[in-house]
Amino acid sequence: MEWKTDWGLRGRMGFTMFLLFALYVVFIGVLIEVFNVGILFTLAMFGAFSFAQYFFSDKLALRSMGAREVSAEEYPDLHRRIERLSQQADLPKPAVAVADTQVPNAFATGRNKKNATVAVTTGLLRSLDDDELDGVLAHELAHVKNRDVMVMTIASFLSTIAFFIVRWGWLFSGDNRQGAPVIVAILVSILVWIVSFLLIRALSRYREYSADRGAALITGKPGALASALMTIDGRMDRVPKEDLREEAEMNAFFIIPIKAGFVGKIASTHPSTENRIERLRELEREMETA
To answer: 233: burial class by Cβ within 10 Å (0-12, 13-18, 19+)?
Structure first.
């Protein structure tokens, strides 16, 4: 397999991280000024959160989905597939996890190629045929190879902190002296959350196209992934709304987002399934004539 570096993705990841870093500096400055705390304390607090986010984000993502790592004895076929596709992608075999849910989906998590996990749902395993499942697994491995899982994890950190302040900041506005500064911090946090969300959304949409292309290179079957996307998208309508709402917060990492809830409806983290399928069909025609 001839893997070409996607410089468009690299450039977008670099630009997004630069803008998020600038936003990070402004956000820290506002919090220091508003809460009148020392810069060393604030940096130490953010450093601790960053450390936890970087090293434990994979475990948190799996827990939020109710997924657990599974052995080759439990899911031999799934392990064999991921091992074979990892070899084709020139990647170390990632850990394998399964979530017991009707929602047909998959995601990859982890801080680097050597510490990655590919997770699938039981709904996905029941929904796809062999070639379609290979296409979805290859898509997740392409995310790992492109290193965009790590970038998305880091990028989501700032919005997580801002959302935490927006949600719980009112607890610190008990007296008149603290009330106004806390309101300012909450308003700034709302702005930071919106900006960081839009940056993550823009990056996430491109990374899905890149991972689709990567999956086609790994398997040599763009049509299989296109078929899988149609199957998954069609089965989403049959899943209970309660299940969809519970898992919609992981949208940026899923192969197909869950269009449930207010945010899911107004700002999808993924391009439309129709556009992705159209590009895969074009790639399939190119590979057939090459």
So the answer is: middle
